[in-house]
Write a structure and sequence with these properties.
The complex is a heterodimer. By secondary structure, chain A is α/β, with parallel strands linked by helices. Chain A has one domain: P-loop containing nucleotide triphosphate hydrolases (Rossmann fold), CATH 3.40.50.300. Helices cover about 35% and strands about 25% of the residues of chain A. In chain A, strands 6-7-8-3-9-10 form a six-stranded mixed β-sheet, sandwiched between helices. A four-stranded antiparallel β-sheet of chain A has the order 2-1-4-5, with helices on one face. In chain A, helix 3 packs parallel to helix 5 and helix 5 runs parallel beside helix 6. Chain B folds into four domains: about 200 residues, no CATH class; about 170 residues, no CATH class; about 210 residues, no CATH class; about 180 residues, no CATH class. In chain B, the strands form three sheets. In chain B, strands 11, 12, 13, 14, 17, 18, 19, 20, 21 and 22 form a ten-stranded mixed β-sheet that branches. The radius of gyration of chain B is 36 Å and the shape is flat. The two termini of chain B are about 30 Å apart. The chains are: A alpha/beta, B alpha+beta. The interface between A and B is medium-sized, with 30 and 26 residues. Chain A: InterPro entries: AAA+_ATPase (IPR003593), ABC_transporter-like_ATP-bd (IPR003439), ABC_transporter-like_CS (IPR017871), ABC_transpr_LolD-like (IPR015854), MacB-like_ATP-bd (IPR017911), P-loop_NTPase (IPR027417). Chain A: One of its GO terms (molecular function) is ATP binding. Chain A: Keywords: ATP-binding, Nucleotide-binding, Transport.
Chain lengths: ~220, ~800
């Protein structure tokens, strides 16, 4: 049974004539590592946001297992995002006033499930951030900030991890480190990962590559 | 601490400037709430103490009863302090034939604890110190029976000799009888002892005392209460008075609430607007709308705590200073009221609850707004696009006609500024409240003001022409600011609509009439209120100058002589040299003539020189000289009828002055809070527009040009707010005046021109401050950093 199904997804922005997504259909199986490539403005990020329940489509459906995302109300959708989806952005989007540890545990805390000290220590160790545990985001490098964002995305062990250009703002070394962490989540924890990228090297690391052009999604490069 | 509380706390610490601004706004609101509630409580307590000053602090007098019952009553926890007196029965005092007392004279024994009450009753002399010393009612004083003399009192078959050491004012409002003889003794004789007491809880005073009296089988009908004092504390069982006072407090709280609400709402809303992206980000990682709402509310409540503490300290401290100042004003005017600062838990808890409630209300809308931020807004760093209608995009007449480019740009920004509505409402409300309330209060007080008159007026009936002696006497007294010495008599009008009305003739020397009135008989006219049969009130001259060019004057209703026709010149009393402010202006039109004219008309009027009475009216500075003037007049003219206007007005003026000062203080604080809201909003908007201003600078606009644009834009807003606020303020003032003062006959509305100018001056100061802050900001900001930043 597919973990994620998108059916006839259309997204039109009021100020634009052409739809950002034009009847997109997509099926993702559990445990897949998928990358979506395509030129700027092709609709990649829009698709990712719709798959993650961040934005609402103009028409169409997104199902995670049996749940139709857009039948949920705002609160249910927020809880869904918190528990089932891990989101990673190009510009990290960390809360500047929270420490590394607090940023990572934020979704779990919001869910009323405090993270155990052991679990947090393990996560920090995997991310290579043990020494930075109490640092604020402004005191970290770009790569470190992105690792914190990955930690935050993974802390609730979501079914699916969505990453929007996670390496777009990083050097090669840090990019590799980020991809290693995503693969770790995919292989060791069995999480489904969808990555949007411009980088051919990143795209090449996926089991499945899809291409987005002018709002249309096609299989393969 | 939950993660949301922690997040809120950190956010407040990180955004220190905004947090301090919000705390400052809340502190002002809290100061207003604390100062008002504690101030009202203090005023209530001070007026209670003032009302009880004549009874030595006692609020109740129980029916006379046996010592045993008095002891039981005294032990009641409802009473705090007690005093006692006993009626020793009626007495016979020697030489009674010359006094005015027709009823029986009582001998009253009082305990030493009643001394404070006795002091307030004392008309002359001192309080008794020895067992054979007594106080005597002032109406019992005769040539033989006076201060220092020994009197014989026959009581219950025994004769006692007492020495009079003081006299009591028979009209003093005290529970202790003042019409007889009073002696002080530690052991009260007799079975009829009256217990006087102060109350622990005046708010339930009447109900408590009635039950206590009943519980001791005493007749409730003989229970006496200091009703005026209890009324102040809502404890007299007067539902109507209590309801009125509660309504006044509620109205004040509603006004404070509205102002505080606007102020706190503005601060929270600005903070929420600045954090939209943050809220969106939180939403992407699964924060529910309810959690975002909670976050905003929690942050707001976190800020209320320090604001309450600061507001409490500033409010109480400021109130203490204000009361000190008000007491100085009252003492300077010899007004017998002392204002006490009364801080107890009720107004403080009330203020805290009030602030929490206002903050919750103020945070509700911004919190809802924050919870509606969509996750996509955060990811895309979307700034909400201004919703501009086609009308807003069309250039206005002003934009079309402005040729200075930066002013034109300022006008365009002003038209398209989405935050403009809130600012305009704030400004308008501020100006309207200031103008409306100050104008209303000014107009309202005019209704209760004692008519402008002299401070001492003396009439020397039947003593012939005493004008020279009066002048000589007054020349020896200091502090006389103005004096009017005239000879007067009364005639009656027998023509026109005013037939039957009395008219005072003021007879002055030839030279005075020539100097001040061109030698013409002059009718000093006044304006008074009239009411038609249908109840419509109108303000008109007492004697219509158009229809009464000629007046027929006669000597009273039963005049035997034909009288005199005259054609006086008319002059408003308020403008008459020498007379204005010296006579009661209401309903007392008078005719000024010279002595020669009087003698010419005397025959036709059936009057003679001896009918003229010498009168003197004196205006003093300081007013405390009234006693010296009266003493001088008394010593020279023993039979003079003297009106001590200063003393007569003291009590009512004291209360009016207290209420007036309180009202002004309240309005001043309210206006300051409103103004602070405007300033807060102005500077928050300025901070929020830093980036767009930096963008203008980055494309080559000089700081001076940007300043011109900003000042131009802000001027448009201030002028509109001032105009709208002034109009609304006039409306508010007129409406309040009509509702609350329209029924008073001497009420007339004065337009708030001065207040409108004061509001304009205050706004100009804000405008200059804004210009200064903008200039500093433009010259110190890092343009590159601001232009690159995405948040």
């Amino acid at each position: 049974m597919p973990i994620l199904t998108a059916t006839d997804l259309v997204k039109t922005y009021p100020e634009e004539e052409r739809p950002a997504l034009d009847h997109v259909n997509l099926t993702i199986e559990p445990g897949e590592f998928v990358t979506i490539v395509g030129p700027s403005g092709s609709g990649k990020s829009t698709l990712l946001h719709l798959l993650g329940g961040v934005d609402r489509p103009t028409s169409g459906q997104v199902q995670l297992y049996d749940t139709d995302l857009y039948q949920l109300n705002e609160t249910q959708l927020a809880i869904f995002r918190r528990r089932q989806v891990g989101l990673i952005y190009q510009f990290f989007n960390l809360i500047p006033s929270l420490t590394v540890a607090e940023n990572i545990t934020l979704p779990s805390e919001l869910d009323g499930k405090p993270v155990s000290e052991g679990q947090l220590a393990l996560m920090l160790d995997q991310l290579g951030l043990t020494a930075k545990r109490n640092a604020l985001p402004a005191q970290l490098s770009g790569g470190q900030q992105q690792r914190v964002a990955i930690g935050r995305a993974l802390i609730n062990e979501p079914a699916i991890v969505l990453a929007d250009e996670p390496t777009g703002n990083l050097d090669q070394h840090n990019s590799q480190e980020i991809m290693r962490l995503l693969h770790y989540a995919n292989v060791k924890q069995g999480q489904t990962v969808i990555v949007i990228t411009h980088d051919p090297q990143v795209a090449a690391q996926a089991q499945r590559v899809m291409t987005m052009t002018d709002g249309h999604l096609t299989e393969g490069r | 601490m939950s993660i949301l509380t922690k997040l809120g706390w950190r956010q407040l610490r990180v955004e220190r400037g905004r947090t301090l601004l919000t705390i400052a706004a809340m502190t002002l609101a809290a100061t207003l709430a604390v100062a008002t509630l504690v101030g009202l409580r203090s005023l209530q307590d001070s007026m209670y103490q003032y009302q009880l000053s004549s009874t030595g602090g006692m609020a109740v007098a129980f029916p006379a009863t046996a010592a045993q019952t008095v002891a039981k009553l005294s032990a009641s926890p409802l009473l705090t302090k007690t005093q006692q007196y006993a009626d020793e029965g009626t007495i016979k005092v020697d030489h009674t034939k010359t006094n005015d007392i027709t009823g029986a004279i009582h001998l009253t024994a009082v305990t030493p604890a009643t001394k404070p009450a006795l002091k307030s009753m004392l008309a002359s002399g001192r309080l008794p110190q020895a067992a054979d010393e007594v106080l005597l009612a002032d109406v019992l004083v005769t040539a033989q029976r006076k201060l220092g003399s020994t009197i014989q009192v026959k009581s219950a078959g025994h004769t006692h000799q007492y020495r009079v050491v003081g006299t009591t004012n028979v009209y003093a409002s005290s529970f202790i009888p003042t019409g007889g003889v009073l002696r002080i003794t530690p052991h009260l004789p007799g079975r009829r002892i009256t217990l006087l007491a102060a109350l622990k809880n005046p708010a339930t005073g009447k109900a408590d005392m009635v039950s206590l009296t009943k519980a001791h089988d005493l007749p409730v009908s003989q229970l006496r209460l200091a009703n005026q004092a209890l009324k102040v504390m809502w404890g007299a069982g007067d539902t109507k008075a209590r309801t009125t006072q509660i309504i006044i407090v509620l109205v004040m709280l509603a006004v404070i609430g509205a102002v505080a609400l606007i102020m706190i709402y503005t601060s929270i809303n600005l903070a929420v607007q600045a954090r939209r992206q943050r809220y969106g980000l939180l939403r992407t990682i699964g924060t529910t709308p309810q959690q975002i709402r909670l976050l905003v509310v929690q942050e707001s409540l976190l800020l209320v705590l320090p604001a309450l503490l600061l507001g409490g300290v500033i409010g109480i401290g400021g109130l203490a200073l204000a009361l000190q100042w008000m007491n100085r004003v009252l003492a300077g005017n010899e007004l017998p009221v002392i204002l006490y600062l009364h801080v107890d838990w009720l107004p403080l808890v009330g203020a805290a609850l009030f602030m929490v409630l206002v903050t919750l209300l103020a945070a509700a809308r911004p919190a809802r707004r924050a919870s509606r931020v969509t996750p996509i807004e955060a990811i895309r760093a979307l700034n909400p696009s201004p919703r501009l209608t086609a009308r807003k995009l069309r250039p206005t007449w002003l934009i079309r006609h402005l040729h200075q480019p930066m002013l034109k740009l300022g006008a365009i920004f002003d038209r398209r500024d989405t935050r403009r509505g809130t600012m305009l409402v704030l400004l308008t409300v501020t100006v309207a409240l200031f103008i409306g309330l100050t104008s209303f209060v000014g107009n309202f007080w005019r209704v209760f003001e004692s008519p402008a008159s002299a401070d001492v007026i003396a009439t020397l009936l039947g003593q012939g022409d005493q004008t020279k002696q009066l002048k000589r006497t007054l020349a020896k007294v200091t502090g006389i600011k103005r004096q009017l010495i005239v000879r007067t008599t009364s005639v009656m009008i027998k023509s026109g609509k005013e037939t039957g009305n009395d008219l005072t003739l003021y007879v002055v020397p030839e030279a005075q009439l020539a100097r001040d009135f061109g030698g013409q008989p002059t009718l000093l006219n006044t304006k008074v209120f009239y009411e038609t049969a249908k109840g419509r009130q109108y303000y008109a001259w007492q004697i219509n100058p158009k229809t009464n060019r000629r007046l027929h004057l006669v000597n009273g209703f039963e005049a035997k002589k034909a009288g005199q026709w005259i054609a006086p010149q008319y002059m408003a009393l308020s403008k008459a040299p020498g007379f204005k402010g010296m006579l009661y202006p209401d309903g007392l039109a008078g005719l000024v003539i010279s002595l020669t004219q009087f003698h010419q008309w005397a025959g036709k009027l059936g009057m003679k020189d001896a009918d003229l009475t010498s009168e003197v009216a004196v205006k003093l500075s300081p007013k405390s000289q009234h006693t010296a003037v009266i003493k001088a007049l008394r010593s020279q003219f023993g039979r003079a009828q003297i009106a001590d206007v200063v003393a007569d007005n003291q009590q009512s003026e004291a209360i009016i002055t207290v209420v007036r000062l309180t009202a002004w203080a309240f309005i001043a604080l309210l206006s300051l809070v409103c103004l602070a809201t405007v300033i807060n909003h102005t500077f928050a908007n300025l901070t929020a527009s830093r980036r767009s201003l930096a963008m203008l600078q980055s494309i080559g606009t000089t700081p001076k040009q940007v300043l011109t644009m900003q000042q131009g834009q802000y001027s448009l807003l201030l002028v509109q707010g001032w105009l709208l606020g002034s109009l609304l303020g006039i409306g508010l003032s007129a409406l309040l005046f009509r509702v609350m003062a329209g029924a008073y006959s001497n009420a007339h509305f004065v337009w708030p021109g001065v207040q409108i100018l004061v509001a304009l001056a205050a706004l100009m100061i804000v405008w200059l401050g804004f210009g200064f802050a903008t200039w500093r900001m433009l010259n110190h900001q890092n343009i590159d950093e601001l232009v690159r930043s995405s948040d």
